[in-house]
UniProtKB/TrEMBL annotation:
Catalyzes xyloglucan endohydrolysis (XEH) and/or endotransglycosylation (XET). Cleaves and religates xyloglucan polymers, an essential constituent of the primary cell wall, and thereby participates in cell wall construction of growing tissues. Residues 1-20 form the signal peptide. PROSITE patterns: GH16_2. Pfam families: Glyco_hydro_16, XET_C. GO terms for biological process: cell wall biogenesis; cell wall organization; phloem or xylem histogenesis; xyloglucan metabolic process. Its EC number is 2.4.1.207. It comes from Arabidopsis lyrata subsp. lyrata. GO terms for molecular function: hydrolase activity, hydrolyzing O-glycosyl compounds; xyloglucan:xyloglucosyl transferase activity. Residues 312-324 have a biased composition (Basic residues). The active site is at residues 108, 112. It is an enzyme of class 2 (transferase). This is Xyloglucan endotransglucosylase/hydrolase. InterPro entries: Beta-glucanase-like, Beta-glucanase/XTH, ConA-like_dom_sf, XET_C, XTH.
Length: 333
């Protein structure tokens, strides 16, 4: 009876992440309070305020940190400023995973930032895995409507039992709805939050054509406004501990307002460069959750093929400004 009561509380709480919620109202978690260094020795530096972190990649190693707690659903966010100049082969990752606990059937929700050669812009890749379904990559790639090396921008993951939504500066850029046919491919086990920088020379830029050039090192990624707003999981009982202060209404959290959905549609139309749903080289038949849009499929054909290699575990060691289109439906000047 006690377990059932706690489950009902868990499912009915989580109030706060309603559609159009204000990011600035969510509590910022200090590094000491919420995180532990994962690897990188002195390549991780915590600023005096305790709320800003610098990760460095050099010839010796990358670096990274991980949340102290496991979480089952919630909102996870960071403001990130990416390395400038030549950054080919560099990968900055902000993601959730339980790979250390479930090596053969892990879950994962990824934001990966892929560096580029001088004069070319950083790209974002999002992906999800569930229950070790790494053979079924669900990658999407995008350009951005701003230069992510000039200032901090907020990148966020909303994860509920039925939805995953990726945000950039509070604009939803991707929504993954859980379908019955996905089965265990939808992330459903408690995960930690990871933040890393590492050498992805074998695949990150043009399928490995351009690798990291350490002549331009050190590569420095900066992080602030770290948000862990969800239900931490008791490591012994394996049950989420939710209180009203940290809770979010799961049923409301997955709702995207008409205004947000318009911005998401504009973003995807103007900035998405790859989607697994249209990759007929990898999938002769689109995966079951894909909603195929013929016009979108035709548009994405103009982009070069994307190579996805064997991506190592993130924590194993380790410009010219062009006119952009806004995501509010209007064109930039």
């Amino acid at each position: 009876m006690e377990t059932l009561t706690r489950l009902l509380v868990f499912m009915t709480l989580f109030s706060g992440l309603v559609s159009g919620f204000a990011l600035q109202n969510l509590p910022i978690t200090s590094f000491e309070e919420g995180y532990t260094q994962l690897f990188g020795d002195k390549n991780l530096f915590v600023h005096k305020d305790g709320k800003s972190v610098r990760l460095t990649l050099d010839e010796r190693t990358g670096s990274g940190f991980v949340s102290n707690d496991l979480y089952l659903h919630g909102f996870f966010s960071a403001s990130i400023k990416l390395p400038s100049d030549y950054s080919a082969g560099v990968v900055v990752a902000f993601y959730m995973s339980n790979g250390d606990m479930y090596e053969k059937n892990h879950d994962e929700i990824d934001f990966e930032f892929l560096g580029n050669i001088r004069g070319k812009e950083w790209r974002i890749q999002t992906n999800i895995y569930g229950n070790g379904s790494t053979h079924l990559g669900r990658e999407e790639r995008y350009n951005l409507w701003f230069d992510p090396t000039e200032d901090f921008h907020q990148y966020s993951i909303l994860w509920s039992d039925s939805h995953i939504i990726f945000f950039v500066d509070n604009v939803p850029i991707r929504e993954v709805k859980r379908t019955a046919s996905m089965g265990g491919d939808f992330p459903s086990k408690p995960m930690s939050l990871y933040t890393t920088i590492w050498d992805g020379s074998k695949w990150a830029t043009n399928g490995g054509k351009y690798g990291v050039n350490y002549k331009y090192a050190p590569y420095i990624a900066r992080f602030s406004d770290l948000v862990l707003h969800g239900c931490p999981v008791d490591p012994i009982e394996q049950f989420p501990r939710c209180d009203e202060g940290a809770a979010v209404d799961i049923r409301a959290a997955q709702e995207i307002t008409p205004s947000q959905r318009k911005k998401m549609d504009v973003f995807r139309r103007k900035h998405m460069t790859y989607s697994y749903c249209y990759d007929r080289t990898r999938y002769k038949v689109a995966l079951s959750e894909c909603v195929v849009n013929p016009a979108e499929a035709q548009r994405l054909r103009v982009y070069d093929p994307v190579t996805f290699g064997g991506i190592p575990r993130r924590h194993r060691n380790g410009k010219h400004r062009s006119k952009r289109s806004r995501v509010d439906g209007t064109e930039s000047i």
